[in-house]
Design brief:
The complex is a heterodimer of chains A (372) and B (293). By secondary structure, chain A is of the alpha+beta class. Chain A is built from five helices and 21 strands. In chain A, the strands form five sheets. Chain A has a six-stranded mixed β-sheet with strand order 13-12-15-19-17-18. In chain A, strands 1, 2, 3, 5 and 7 form a five-stranded mixed β-sheet that branches. In chain A, strands 4-9-8-6 form a four-stranded mixed β-sheet. Chain A starts with a helix and ends in a 19-residue tail after the last strand. Chain B is of the alpha+beta class and 293 residues long. Chain B contains seven helices and twelve strands. In chain B, strands 3, 4, 8, 9, 10 and 11 form a six-stranded mixed β-sheet that branches. The termini of chain B are close together. Classes of the chains: A alpha+beta (372), B alpha+beta (293). At the A-B interface, strand 20 and strand 21 of A face helix 6 and strand 9 of B.
Chain lengths: 372, 293
């Protein structure tokens, strides 16, 4: 007798085999770098950190390419996604929504060990938009609970790119909106530049992963809770197909980046904000600030645009914005579909310390009665 | 109507018991004593406390810290022991006098009614007044603060700096300091009692007050020079003073883009001094009605 889990496994596996077939025939085009050459490259092991933070890295490097080793453990777990205590059956890369931001340099090799612990219930894989071939690695990384896989790909172009789980068929959108998405930043070896080629640096980098969520409600309009991802699937898919999310959040829950978790910065500091949305369009805006340099499509070979008010992140992509804070205070960074920002959750705050600049702004006369 | 209403207020003022809450038509006196007896009321003894005035204050065109005053109450305040329960509020809904609560609300006698607007709360007070024959109303911010005692949070911001971000960041940090507070409602008493015996003040339910959002310009001696009042925005009291539009039920939609809103909006009521005055008021009502004003 097939259990629910077996069914999900076989559906995922057959969908993958069918879709993977065309790419395996073109495998004859060998990569120019021989295996033994790669084996001679220096290796670096990186411990990933949960967003909005990013592991330590060099912005530019004079060193040659290396193999950068990452490890991510897939965690299926129940999380709370809003202040009302709504429970959500999350599927995550390394326990966070979004998964951690990986940083390498163009020409480096990314070597990921992906682990699917036996305690999980479902097969998972990973599709890197930064990679080339085999459905972004998805066709080579499908692992059942109790398995792990190692994938290596060459980061042959710079930019910020989405990665996500894509285990085949209906499982793909469901796993993505259940939390299995993240981003990788492939920096040019000589770092970021403005349109004239002048180097750009950042003092801090924050990674914001925006995610649309589709939580089913009961007949009283109350959000339903489920004991496992599989039990939530049928109801969730029905909500997903209507394309109206119940939550649109940054970093996994409403308020994940506000209050005590507001992102700190200082006047005069330059902050790089990496923003990904693996499924749905969004339009970040920094209230009271700007994007000094914005790679709206997220690819560093294209010159950044200057002084943007709002930038557009296409669903299934990541973008990057560089801004130097000029004024202290609390800044809201949000999806400027304000309904999604305020009603559905897509709001973060920066808390910026420093000295106020009257030249940039001054309250000439405080609110009071209208004279005369 | 405005003229007749003013006349009524004037008459009432002459009788010595006018309150700012006379908008409710005076039609008490025939209430249900059993229902009235069910209301759990705590009497707060007269006294005084240091009180930071609500609203915004300016001096010489600059926003300043709100003045702190000595607040005195010479008469006791009768105020509900706990917030109005979902079950009590539902009675008003069933009577057709109150707006229904959210459909997923647990109608319990030991949990507060939440997701109620200022208008909803005022509607309940009017209904309860008719039902019991005793006048109930929302407390003023000052009454709430006095009843809350040590649970009242002084929202003074030390800096009168020229730098607007100093106040802003200080307020944000203070309002953010509540990580341990989940939105899960607790049974009455779940947030403890204050020194006056009142339950659950400054827990995760903010309580509506009758006080409007005022902005006052004061001179160097602290004397008010000009005031603008916005009664479309009322003060909700709790862990921090919140200014919320009176039709808002879920405060997240009523806050500004970079502050933290109240978690829940509920309320408790003040009971006006009872029998002799109520009888007098009834008499007055009849006089007013007979006079045709």
């Amino acid at each position: 007798m097939m259990t629910r889990r077996d069914t999900l496994l076989s559906v995922a596996a057959s969908a993958l085999m069918m879709s993977a077939a065309p790419t395996t025939t073109s495998a004859a085009a060998a990569t120019p770098t021989a295996e033994e050459d790669i084996s001679k490259l220096p290796r670096q092991k990186v411990e990933l950190v949960a967003p909005p933070f990013v592991h330590a890295h060099q912005q530019a490097t004079k060193d040659g390419p290396k193999v950068v080793e990452f490890k991510m453990v897939v965690q299926e777990k129940e999380v709370v996604i809003d202040e009302d205590g709504t429970k959500f059956q999350a599927m995550t890369f390394n326990g966070s929504m979004p998964g951690p931001l990986m940083v390498v340099h163009e020409g480096d090799y990314v070597e990921l060990t992906l682990v699917n612990p036996a305690s999980n219930t479902m097969p998972h894989n990973i599709d890197f938009h930064a990679s080339t071939g085999a459905l972004g690695g998805g066709a080579l990384t499908l692992i059942n609970p109790g398995e792990q896989v190692v994938l290596r790909f060459k980061a042959d172009r710079s930019g910020v790119f989405v990665y996500h789980c894509a285990p085949g068929g209906n499982m793909i959108p469901w796993h993505v909106v259940s939390g299995m998405n993240g981003a990788i930043m492939v920096l040019p070896r000589d770092g970021l530049k403005d349109r004239s080629g002048k180097p750009l640096h950042y003092d801090r980098v924050y990674y914001i992963g925006e995610q649309d969520m589709y939580v089913p409600k009961d007949q009283n309009g109350k959000y339903k809770a489920y004991a496992s991802p599989a039990e939530s699937y049928v109801d969730t898919a029905e909500v997903m197909r209507k394309l109206i999310p119940t939550h649109v959040v940054f970093n996994g829950k409403v308020g994940a980046l506000t209050g005590k978790n507001a992102m700190p910065a200082k006047v005069g500091e330059t902050v790089l904000i990496v923003h990904s949305q693996a499924n749905r369009d969004t339009r970040p805006h920094l209230i009271g600030g700007h994007g000094d340099y914005v790679w709206e499509t997220g690819k560093f070979a294209n010159p950044p645009e200057n002084n943007l008010e709002t930038w557009f992140i296409r669903g299934g992509s990541a973008g990057a914005a560089l801004y130097t804070f000029k004024q202290p205070g609390v800044y809201a960074y949000l999806n400027h579909n304000l309904i999604e920002a305020i009603e559905l959750g897509a709001t973060a705050h920066f808390k910026v310390d420093g000295k106020w600049n009257d030249d940039l702004m001054k309250q000439v006369s405080a609110p009071g009665p209208i004279p005369g | 109507m405005p003229l007749a209403f003013k006349a009524k207020v004037a008459l009432a003022a002459l009788a010595g018991f006018v309150t700012p809450f006379m908008a409710v038509p005076l039609m008490l006196g025939s209430g249900d004593p059993a229902f009235e007896a069910r209301q759990a009321i705590t009497v707060v003894a007269p006294g005084s406390m240091q009180y930071r005035l609500p609203g915004e204050f300016t001096r010489d065109g600059r926003q300043i810290e709100a003045p702190r005053i000595e607040l005195r109450f010479d008469a006791p305040i009768s105020i509900m022991l706990h917030q109005v329960s979902a079950a009590d509020y539902q009675l008003c809904v069933d009577d057709g006098a109150c707006h229904p609560m959210a459909s997923d609300t647990a109608i319990r006698a030991d949990r507060p009614a939440v997701r109620v607007s200022w208008q909803d709360a005022t509607g309940y007070a009017d209904w309860l007044s008719r039902k019991t024959g005793t006048r109930y109303r929302l407390p003023t911010d000052a009454e709430w603060a006095f009843a809350a005692g040590s649970r009242f949070k002084d929202d003074g911001l030390a800096s009168d700096s020229d730098d607007p971000s100093v106040r802003w960041i200080a307020r944000y940090e203070r309002e953010s300091d509540r990580d341990d507070l989940s939105s899960t409602l607790r049974s009455f008493g779940g947030f403890g009692a204050n020194e006056r015996g009142l339950l659950d003040l400054s827990g995760n339910v903010w309580e509506w007050t009758a006080t409007c959002f005022d902005r006052t310009a004061i001179d160097a001696a602290g004397r008010p020079q000009a005031q603008t009042a916005n009664c479309g925005v009322r003060i909700a009291e709790g862990l921090h003073r919140a200014y919320v539009s009176d039709f808002i039920r879920d405060a997240k939609a009523g806050g500004c883009s970079a502050g933290l809103p109240p978690i829940h909006l509920g309320f408790r009521l003040v009971r006006e001094p009872a029998a002799p005055l109520a009888r007098l008021r009834d008499k007055l009502d009849r006089v007013v009605a007979a006079a045709g004003i």
